[in-house]
Amino acid sequence: MADAEHDGEDAYVPPERADVEYLLGRLETLEKTVDDPEERKQVRRTIQAAHRLPGAEALEDRIQKFTTRDVAESFVGGIILSLPLLVEDGVFEIAEWFLETTVSGIPVVLVAHVTFIVLLTVGLLYWSDIRDVRVTKPLFGFVPRRLLGVLTISLFTAAFLLVLWGRHAEGDPASTLEVFARVTVIWTAAAFGAALGDILPGESRGRDLLVESVGDVGTDSDE
Length: 223
What we know:
By secondary structure, this protein is mostly helical. It has two domains: 2-59, no CATH class; 65-199, no CATH class. 59% of the residues lie in helices and 4% in strands. It has helices spanning 2-11, 20-33, 37-50, 68-86, 90-100, 108-127, 145-164, 176-199, and strands spanning 62-63, 102-103, 106-107, 132-133. The strands form two sheets. It has a two-stranded parallel ribbon. The protein has a two-stranded antiparallel sheet with strand order 2-3. A hairpin with a 2-residue loop joins strand 2 (102-103) and strand 3 (106-107). The model is unreliable at 4-13 and 212-223 (pLDDT under 50).
């Protein structure tokens, strides 16, 4: 048995271009698998020492994890930018405009606006130079966890505040689609604030969300 384990260790060949990022990734994976508290403490100390290695400074602005702290930061950022719009009656005028033009019963302007929100969030997270945000372990192999989290949290924030303040029922009795159109107006600011609130503080400590529960269904990729 000992020989078999030794053979398994010898069979492992690290990548030719192993670097500090690779080392930290291996150590963080090891930290999750270690059960003994003392051994886990030793792994954490090794991770702290690895952060002091030459070249580790470049990783400080890199964001790979999506943790519970990121969720809280997105929620707060979404609220901060949503509040000014909640007191503006222009929200109702914009929502009515979204529903005026339809093609085969589909409000094309509303669809275009939702698409704009998604692209705006993608641009802030991955295309801007604010932070080096990486896509790691995407859900189902292609859905970025951070993008899905920011959009979901900001949409919930917009809907929650609109209902909490009673702005969803202003004016004539509104249909479900009209209420959704009003939510999307607030959602624009909420998504902007949630994305900035998530990435501006930098990498958050803690374990990745939606990784262990989904079973690492995706593969690592950069964007």
